[in-house]
Structure formats: C-alpha cells, structure tokens
C-alpha cells in the first residue's frame, strides 16, 4: 500500500513538472523596443521595424521563444524592465557598469560609438577639445548624455526626450553640437539632415549593445546560444548588410 501511495505521488509530481515545463515553453515574452531609434528599432505606420527587430526575431526563433514587442520611449525602457512591464529590452542598450549593477545582459551583438555632429557650415568644432563654451545637445537619459555631461567644458548640455529634437535644434543652429550613436547619426546625416549637418572628428568612444533582462531571469542563457547560432549560420551578416551596407568589421563573439 505504501509503495502504491509513493508511486502515485511520484507520478503526480512528474505530471505537474511537465505541465509547468510546457507552460514555460508557451509563455509569451514581452520585449521592450524603442519607438524612434533608427535604424535599430522604430515604429512606422504602426509597424515595428529595424535591424534589432529582425535580429531579435531570428534569435527568438533559435531560442524557441514566443514574444510580443512593446514599443516605448528610450527613457521608459529600464524602468519597464525593472517593474516587470517587459521581460527583455532589445533597443540599442549599451552595456556599462551602472546598468550591470541593476540588470543582466546577453553577450554583445553590436559594436558602435558616440560621434559629434555640427552644422554643415561650422568650422569651429572639429573634436571634443573644441566644445569649450559651446552648447551640446543629445538624448536625455542616454549614454551620450552621460558622456557629454562628463566633459566639463561645454557651456551647457541640453537633453531632449527624443533625439530628433536634438537634431532639429542643431539644424536650426539653436545648439552648436550633437553627440549621439554613430549609426543613428549617419542615418540622419544621409537623410533628413543632408546638407544641413555633418559628422566631425573620430568616434569618441566604443560601446557594445546587448539584450537586457532583470538580474534574475531564465532567458539570457538560451539567448546567448541563439546569438551564436545566428552568427554562425550567416543570418547576422545578412541583416547587417541589409540595414547598414557591407560587412561588419567584427562579428559578435570575435
């Protein structure tokens, strides 16, 4: 009789474990993306687009993860992650010490850096040493905002909720310089900012983008394995060429 009872309990526990496992596989993961960070993630006519949107889709498929994209402003992403509104963030999230104290990150999947933009006819600014007494604009809450604030020499660092506002301020010469992500800046220079602004000097630093999650999570391990797979099977290079042209100087993991 005791054996029968134990066997029944064991079968019940096994069934419960299988049910929980199946629920985990069927869970829809909420993924925060930025609604205006071209060409990485952005929303246009109600459709989510960008390099990171397509890269994440490939990663999620390899990791066997169902997901829902949740577009929001850059300033909302970290809070949404820590409050549980989203489970992951895929939105040009730079890995740095301050963020690593509060969040977990996947292996990096993109290398970039901050650059300086000035008005097309500006001849006074060629590098960060020329910013003394100047007004610098960037995106509020971004690593560029932190970097610009640490320079010490500009007269003022103006943070805008949306980077497009900073670019508009530069194009109308209300500010002297914008500091921001190189890829986003180049897209603006080649598009709406053509003949109005230019990139000057060399990149100011090097930054790595990674997928962010809460400290305690079950997603980063499978995601890292999936990133490795999409690099090895050529998907990463295909998407990179589509959104940026050419080949990356270095693949993730190299």
Automatic annotation (TrEMBL):
N-terminal signal peptide: 1-24
Subcellular location: Cell envelope
Keywords: Signal
InterPro entries documented for this protein: Iontro_rcpt_C, SBP_3_CS, Solute-binding_3/MltF_N
The Ionotropic glutamate receptor C-terminal domain, residue ranges: 28-246
Molecular-function GO terms, alphabetical: ligand-gated monoatomic ion channel activity
SUPFAM superfamilies found in the cross-reference section: Periplasmic binding protein-like II
Major site of localization recorded for this protein: other
Keyword Membrane: no
Domain Solute-binding protein family 3/N-terminal: from-to ranges: 28-247
One GO CC term on file: membrane
Family classification: Belongs to the bacterial solute-binding protein 3 family.
PANTHER family in UniProt: GLUTAMINE-BINDING PERIPLASMIC PROTEIN, MEMBRANE-BOUND LYTIC MUREIN TRANSGLYCOSYLASE F
The protein's name in its UniProt record: Glutamine ABC transporter substrate-bindnig protein
The species this protein was found in: Paenibacillus flagellatus
């Amino acid at each position: 009789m005791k054996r029968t009872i134990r066997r029944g309990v064991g079968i019940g526990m096994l069934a419960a474990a299988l049910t929980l496992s199946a629920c985990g596989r069927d869970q829809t993961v909420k993924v925060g993306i930025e609604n205006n960070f071209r060409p990485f993630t952005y929303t246009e006519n109600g459709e989510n687009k960008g390099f990171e949107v397509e890269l994440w889709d490939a990663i999620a498929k390899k990791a066997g993860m169902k997901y829902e994209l949740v577009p929001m402003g850059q300033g909302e992403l970290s809070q949404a992650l820590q409050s549980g509104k989203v489970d992951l963030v895929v939105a040009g999230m730079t890995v740095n010490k301050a963020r690593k104290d509060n969040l977990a990150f996947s292996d990096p999947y993109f290398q970039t850096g901050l650059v300086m933009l000035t008005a097309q006819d500006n001849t006074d600014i060629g590098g960060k040493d020329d910013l003394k007494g100047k007004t610098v604009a960037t995106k509020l809450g971004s690593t560029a905002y932190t970097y610009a604030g640490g320079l010490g020499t500009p007269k003022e660092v103006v943070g805008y909720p949306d980077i497009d506002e900073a670019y508009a301020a530069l194009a109308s010469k209300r500010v002297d310089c914008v500091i921001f992500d190189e890829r986003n800046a180049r897209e603006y220079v080649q598009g709406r900012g053509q003949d109005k602004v230019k990139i000057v000097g060399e990149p100011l630093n090097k930054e790595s983008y990674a997928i962010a999650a809460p400290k305690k999570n079950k997603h980063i391990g499978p995601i890292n394995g999936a990133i490795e797979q999409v690099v090895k099977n050529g998907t990463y290079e295909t998407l990179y060429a589509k959104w940026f042209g050419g080949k990356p100087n270095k693949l993730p993991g190299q």
